Amino acid sequence: MIDRFELLLALAKERHFGRAAEACGVTQPTLSAGLKQLEEQLGVRLVERGSRFIGFTPEGERALQWARRVIGDVRAMRQEIAGMRRGLTGHLRIAAIPTAMPMLSELTTPFHEKHADVRFTLISASSNEVLRLIENLEADAGVTYLDNDPLGRVKTVPLYREGYRFLTSVDSPLGDRARVTWKEIGQVPLCLLTPDMQNRRIVDKQLAESGHAVTPMLEANSTIALLSHVRTGKWASVVANTLADVFAFPSSIRSIPIEEPEVSHQMGLVVLDREPMTPIVTALLAEARAIAPALAGRI
């Protein structure tokens, strides 16, 4: 039944029979047969079928929740037993919102020094996508906002507060300022992240409250794309302080604190709230708690 639960999880992820079969390394008829056998074992129809995948039945959605729980327990068991012989090994997948990506090295580097046989995959995703990846067992942990969207059934470790900077050229009307207000920024043509990003929704909210509904001159779902445009000196943007601090700008670009109001949001590590946790996730939580005081004091 474990193998058939894996098929169910793959179908939930891909929403397509062919792609789910490919992800599992089986043929589509083998996938369909495995799902049919699972339905026969449980005595209910799990999948709405037509010429293509339609969705899950109510029973299928509930079975999917149990499948995630069972597969999570099996993976935790395998990791724990392997760790008893060889120490901590395996693959750690961390999903993070784009503005948190520069900070991941603060977590992964000390973790790697303690557990050299663990491999990492870092995934850039929106805040909603981070939670979806964790829930579907496609990511082991995430770094996202802790004080905005509802987080659901997760454990959290606060890490640092995200503040915001105005990036502009020294020759621009606000380029010689020590500080700027949100109201002043609202009168400047901006390039910003796309609306599906929580950072963009935060910026939009602050600008709206200052009396300006902004239509950006450029939108991108990549922070690198935004920062590379700002770097030319022809564009302005509002970015997280972590991005402004890590990117090497020429002397012609200013990174200016924003006030009236001075806004910040809590960032942190999130993992699925389940017991037992995998040994890798347990170790990651411990590392996050260890670095959090220094990280919060520095940023």
From TrEMBL:
One matching Pfam family: HTH_1
Keyword Coiled coil: no
Name listed for the protein in its UniProt record: LysR family transcriptional regulator
Keywords assigned: DNA-binding, Transcription, Transcription regulation
Matches recorded under SUPFAM superfamilies: Periplasmic binding protein-like II (SSF53850), Winged helix' DNA-binding domain (SSF46785)
Organism: Ancylobacter koreensis
The keyword Transcription belongs to this UniProt entry's keyword annotation: yes
Family statement: Belongs to the LysR transcriptional regulatory family.
Residue ranges the record marks as coiled coil: none
Domain HTH lysR-type per the UniProt entry, residue ranges: 1-57
Lineage top rank: taxon: Bacteria
